[in-house]
Amino acid sequence: MQQLDLFPEDIRIERVDAEANMFRFYRLRLLPDLFGGVSLLREWGRIGTQGRQRVDLFEDAGQAAQALFAIYDDKKRKGYVR
Predict the structure, then answer these.
(1) Does any domain span residue 9?
(2) CB atoms closer than 10 angstroms to residue 36
(3) What is the count of structural domains for the chain?
(4) Which residues on adjacent β-strands are paired with residue 53?
(5) pTM of the full structure
(6) Which domain holds residue 41?
(7) What would the pLDDT profile of 16-67 be if each residue is shown by its tens digit?
(8) Where are the beta strands (DSSP E) in 1-82?
(9) Residue 8 lies in a domain
(10) CA 54 – CA 38 distance, rounded (Å)
(11) Is the distance from CB of 15 to CB of 27 less than 8 angstroms?
């Protein structure tokens, strides 16, 4: 099992089940915005495609990091791995 960095800013995880034809990825990135806050960029889809994106805005890095870890933990429970 690989341990996360103390404060990761970019996480890519995948869920592969060839028997079910499931080849998914999920990426989480923390990015500074122009107003002093932090954006959480989420990208997901089938491996090999561009996928979809969603941006959530936060006032500070602490809130964004909490959201990143919550999503990461949820995806781990669903079978995604780094």
Answers:
(1) no
(2) 8
(3) 1
(4) 43
(5) 0.83
(6) 30-58
(7) 999 999 999 999 999 998 888 999 999 999 999 999 999 999 999 899 999 9
(8) 10-17, 22-32, 38-46, 52-58
(9) no
(10) 14
(11) no
